[in-house]
Specification:
Two copies of one chain form a homodimer. Chain A is built from 13 helices and nine strands. The longest helix of chain A has 27 residues. Chain A starts with 5 loop residues before the first helix and ends with a strand. Chain A has two domains: about 190 residues, 3-Layer(aba) Sandwich (Rossmann fold), CATH 3.40.50.720; about 100 residues, 6-phosphogluconate dehydrogenase C-terminal fold (Orthogonal Bundle), CATH 1.10.3660.10. Chain A has about 300 residues and is mainly alpha-helical. Helix content of chain A is about 55%, strand content about 10%. A three-stranded mixed beta sheet of chain A has the order 5-6-7. Chain A has a two-stranded parallel ribbon with strand order 1-2.
């Protein structure tokens, strides 16, 4: 486990709780001390940690912040080039491209557990953080079925359900449901505040809920949104198109019917969505990648391997 | 009290609880029976109710749905033209214009209590619904200071704080914090749903909160938004402009800094907003209307008269 913040630290705990032999690296010796004090195997020496992984052919999980990923990949390419490799970063295409630049693509299968809290750091970690969550396992052309299965099994062992998706498709989906909400919340907050104390003083539940995530730390929001530029641009263009049409409909016909009825139907679809078990697709069989992706697109989840 | 739904029914209860002599009208005899069974003075005969008001020069409160307002105003003009008049409808300029068409402008001062629940009807009413809420009292050119004070006193007696605002200014503010949130929630819901089951299956808190009000009944959302067309168009244009600039910034510079930092500042302004007592302005004194409006614009509230 490279990185022992909220996600990496929770994952180290969950892996050990699930009976695995697992150990972690963190740059900060304070974090390492805290992890050791809690009874975990942790080190602030990256090279030693990677050499140990290489000797065991252990599955390496990259759980460092995005700006640190490149340096960690360099070290992996030098000291642990034979290990299967995954990550838990919230964008996938950008990480996959970086992995390729370091020549590590053959042994890499990306991942994204849809879990988190507003807290951060080792002490905020929880072995049960991933229980009941969805964990996207990247299902890209050429994915090694053995590594794919190792990553999926880690997710299952942590109590998550696996959604198979191509990296770029994951990023486009995440833009719609995770990054666009931030963009619209910021927009609503600014437009409300432009009405001054009179407007803000009249604000009630719809404004409070609609702007909640505008209270997130700007640096985190920027890293998320800017790291998924292509996917977010698609979602923003769709939102702009909907709003432009709604504006015209209201100005010309005095009606908001088209937008409001479609929005109500969409929210209902979200509230009533169904998932299904993915069964009968074995990683490595002919066409398994396309079959997994297609199942993931339709709400399918791997709940057993 | 004309109309005994959630707002009118709560207001009848609150007025009586505050020691006033108050009586209500509702079109539905079931509602009237329910109100009577709870010990309130109610009738399904509009003309008789209005004649009684005229005899007492009672303050009439219009609390019927928007589509019924015009018919009620006709009856008031015929049977109770001498009564002071207010309303509790969520848009103000449209109601003020209808009141003028019926020749009732001199005795009318509009109102909008910012209170409600997701329920409706007499049985959902609560004498404490308005306690701690903000109640906008329309402060338009030519407002009769005696009627203005009567309306403000009713709000205060119900436990609310009075925000003085011109009708059109109220509507523009309400568009920013009450109607635009619905438009953006519908837009987010549609854009998320367009990602299919894969996207909806990955949605977490930011999407859930950002689309919550898209689950409101479309007819109610439409009535609210379409009844405030001019104000909403201004807010939508501002939102479109912000989104268009943010889209360009992301596409050309890979940055969301401008939007995200301004959004964070705006949400912080909302969270830390201050209000102040309005004192020393007496309705009827020279310049009282401008002074009241100016105080309302800066977060001022009348807490005593």
């Amino acid at each position: 486990m490279l990185g022992l913040g909220l996600i990496g630290g929770s994952l180290l705990r969950a892996a050990v709780a699930g009976g695995r032999v697992a150990w972690g690296y963190n740059r900060s010796s304070d974090t390492v001390e805290a992890a050791r004090a809690d009874g975990f195997d942790a080190d602030s020496d990256l090279i030693a940690t990677l050499k140990r992984a290489e000797a065991d052919k252990a599955l390496i999980v990259i759980a460092v912040p995005v700006p640190a990923v490149d340096a960690v990949l360099s070290a992996i390419a030098e000291h642990a080039p034979g290990c299967p490799l995954t990550d838990v970063v919230s964008v996938k295409a950008e990480i996959a491209a970086a992995v390729s630049r370091h020549g590590l693509a053959p042994q890499y299968v990306g991942g994204h557990p849809m879990a988190g809290t507003s807290e951060s750091g080792w002490t905020a970690g929880d072995a049960d953080l991933f229980r009941g969550a969805v964990w996207v396992v990247a299902t890209d052309d050429g994915a090694d079925p053995t590594v794919w299965s190792q990553v999926a099994q880690l997710a299952l062992d942590c109590g998550s359900e696996v959604v198979p998706a191509e990296s770029a498709e994951h990023d486009r989906a995440a833009a719609r449901i995770s990054h666009l909400p931030h963009i619209l919340a910021e927009t609503l907050a600014i437009t409300g505040d432009a009405g001054g104390p009179l407007a803000l003083g009249l604000a009630a539940g719809s404004f409070r809920d609609g702007t909640r995530v505008a209270g997130s730390a700007p640096a985190l929001v920027r890293a998320m949104c800017e790291g998924n530029r292509d996917g977010l641009l698609i979602a923003m263009d769709e939102a702009l198109d909907l709003l432009t049409r709604a504006r015209r409909d209201l100005a010309e016909n005095g009606s908001t019917a088209t937008l409001v009825e479609a929005g109500y139907a969409a929210r209902s679809a979200y509230e009533t969505q169904q998932t299904s078990d993915i069964t009968g697709i074995t990683p490595g069989d002919d066409g398994w990648i396309d079959a997994m992706r297609e199942a993931g697109r339709h709400g399918g989840r791997v709940r057993n391997l």
